[in-house]
Write a structure and sequence with these properties.
Structural class: alpha/beta
Radius of gyration: 19 Å
Order of helices and strands: HEHEHEEEHEEHEEHEHEEH
Number of domains: 2
Bound molecules: magnesium ion
Length: 273
């Protein structure tokens, strides 16, 4: 397909035009039956509005209906690709269970009904976990999300804690206790990770197996942690769309998560006829 020229967003008018372009590209790719696509969706900030804490997000009923319909329409080739563990995704979207990968690709399922598969995960070492807990206590309002092989520190409620947290975490990872660990910055969150997966690897894994294999990948994401996956889409003959602003590799960006939900809802209604 020919891809429209993308203008850099330098103002509200251009941002609106970029949103229209993202909508048009999504519609075109999901409606193309001769070259069906695999749809990969980040969750927080892409499908759901970001809330004060990870547990406070709202999942609109219409979104579940649209995702279920598109999952069927794409013959199962729709997956959630999230930094959350999959059991958290399952709770949020219940009773809907989709192909999902969690904790930035550390565990996943290819089909909706199958058990999770795990990368050889090692838990975050106990001394590091304790240091992170202490760091959170030193900055009241910082929320700790323990995912086993990673711990996320959310500072949305205390934005001023961001810079001191960053320098303390970099220091920790430079010590022997932090050897082999990675620091993953996100929107108002820092995550210390003991595994090597990222969302790009996770999506490549899906593309090796049916029903995802042989389809053009389409990924929508909004954050720094989505950038490797967004950036690899063009080389795979795929399409990357970002949310909020144009990220590297993305052909266009949706204005916000509400715009993504509306676009998916329209696509689901069209394809369910
Ligand atoms: Mg996100």
């Amino acid at each position: 397909m020919s891809r429209p020229m993308v203008q850099r967003p330098v103002g509200a008018a251009i941002a609106l035009r970029d949103d229209a372009l993202a909508n048009a590209l999504l519609e075109e790719w999901l409606g193309e039956r001769r070259q069906p696509c695999s749809l990969f969706l980040d969750v927080d900030g892409t499908l759901l509005d970001i809330a004060e804490s990870p547990d406070a997000v709202h999942v609109p009923r219409e979104l579940c209906v649209a995702l279920e319909s598109l999952h069927r329409r794409l013959d199962g080739a729709l997956a959630l690709v999230s930094g959350r563990p999959v059991d958290s995704l399952d709770r949020l979207f219940a009773p809907l269970r989709l192909p999902s990968c969690g904790s930035h690709g550390a565990h996943w399922r290819v089909h909706a009904g199958e058990p999770l598969r795990h990368e050889a995960e090692r838990p975050l070492p106990a001394p590091v976990r304790q240091r992170l807990q202490a760091l959170a206590r030193a900055h009241p309002g910082v929320l700790v999300e323990d995912k086993g092989s990673s711990v996320a520190l959310h500072y949305r409620q205390v934005p001023d804690a961001g810079p001191p947290l960053a320098s303390a975490l970099r220091e920790l990872l430079g010590e022997p206790a932090g050897a082999g660990l990675r620091l993953l910055p996100g929107k108002m969150v820092y995550e210390v990770i003991a595994h090597s997966s990222d969302k790009a690897q996770a999506i490549r894994r899906y593309l090796d197996a049916p029903p995802f294999a042989g389809r053009r990948p389409l990924f929508i994401g909004d954050d720094v942690t989505d950038e490797p996956a967004l950036a690899m889409m063009p080389a795979l003959g795929g399409l990357a769309l970002s949310v909020g602003h144009l990220l590297p590799g993305a052909s266009a960006s949706f204005a916000d998560a509400a715009s993504v939900r509306a676009a998916l809802d329209r696509a689901a209604r069209r394809t369910s006829r």
